[in-house]
Write a sequence for this structure.
């Protein structure tokens, strides 16, 4: 199998999509970014549905698009399986007919492999969200593509279904020997489905790496915010013991083990924040005392909004503390868990 290579420039309404990337066989790359960042346009360009102004798109040594060589293969000559955001199943066709439309030779095998053979006679409106996704994947793979592209593969699912289908999709991607590229606005989906993640903003890759690398060392406030961190703007100055003090806009003072001087964003991830009724008797140096603004259950955890911070604690801890909106609590986090990034 060959790797997917993309290096292109494509003018959009407000900016130009300009990036270069490579996806190796059997690997999944996720691009995450807000709506309008150019994610879907990138997939369309790879599939031959949008034409770049310049650049090259190809598989291994072969070119699907090359502006210098005058190559621009039509979509049907590009070995791409594209799964659309809303799955785009043909409503007048059965499940079996939808999959066969992608390619008849492997249709029966894929129906069995995705556990939907018993649904072969059903119509798309009779299926659950997870079942529709499996049909869309089977149809895309029935083409026997060399590359799999997925546009917001979980966006059409409700929260209850999302986690289960995410796990199913991860298993499918791990089994494939193809390069796979997916785009999403949800960092959690990207981190769960891909070995590497790129953050896309206004058509440009601002940072890429493993999900753990992006969380541990965000290159900018945009990346930190997008990966789910609390972003607290402030002014930094070096202090004793190799620490940096950050004075927030409301006058709250924090310390970090990162070195910085001047305007910064202090980044604290929700799982780094503890919540209590009083100051903890430990080495934690950063404390924010404020009323609870909200309590939001997420599976077996609870997200607690305390002043400018969101903490994520176990449901058992929230019950033990008998937390209620409006009550004053202390959110605490360590200097080593407080990362400093340039404001951008």
């Amino acid at each position: 199998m060959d790797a997917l290579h993309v290096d292109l420039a494509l003018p959009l309404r407000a900016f130009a999509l300009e990036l270069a990337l490579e996806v190796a066989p059997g690997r999944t790359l996720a691009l995450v970014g807000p709506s309008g960042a150019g994610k879907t346009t990138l997939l369309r360009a790879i599939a031959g549905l949008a034409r770049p102004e310049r650049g090259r798109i190809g598989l291994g040594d072969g070119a699907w698009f090359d502006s210098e060589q005058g190559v621009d293969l039509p979509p049907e000559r590009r070995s791409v399986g594209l799964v659309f955001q809303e799955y785009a199943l043909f409503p007048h066709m059965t499940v079996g007919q939808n999959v066969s439309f992608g390619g008849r030779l492997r249709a029966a095998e894929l129906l069995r492999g995705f556990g939907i053979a018993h649904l072969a006679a059903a119509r798309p409106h009779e299926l659950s969200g997870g079942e529709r996704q499996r049909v869309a994947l089977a149809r895309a793979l029935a083409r026997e593509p060399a590359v799999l592209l997925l546009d917001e593969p979980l966006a059409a699912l409700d929260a209850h279904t999302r986690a289960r289908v995410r796990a199913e999709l991860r298993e499918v991607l791990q089994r494939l020997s193809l390069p796979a590229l997916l785009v999403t606005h949800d960092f959690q989906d990207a981190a769960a489905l891909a070995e590497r993640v790129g953050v896309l903003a206004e058509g440009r890759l601002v940072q890429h790496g493993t999900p753990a690398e992006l969380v541990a060392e965000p290159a900018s406030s945009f990346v930190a915010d997008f990966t789910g961190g609390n972003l607290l703007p402030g002014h930094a100055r070096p202090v004793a013991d190799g620490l940096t003090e950050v004075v927030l806009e409301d006058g709250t003072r924090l310390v970090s083990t990162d070195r910085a001087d001047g305007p910064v964003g202090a980044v604290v991830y929700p799982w780094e924040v503890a919540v209590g009724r009083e100051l903890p008797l430990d080495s934690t140096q950063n404390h924010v005392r404020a009323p609870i603004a909200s309590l939001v259950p997420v599976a077996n955890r609870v997200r607690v909004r305390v002043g400018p911070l969101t903490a994520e604690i176990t449901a058992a801890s929230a019950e033990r503390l008998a937390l209620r909106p409006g009550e004053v609590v202390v959110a605490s986090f360590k200097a080593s868990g407080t990362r400093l990034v340039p404001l951008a």
About this structure: The first strand starts at residue 4 and ends at 11. The chain has a mean pLDDT of 90.
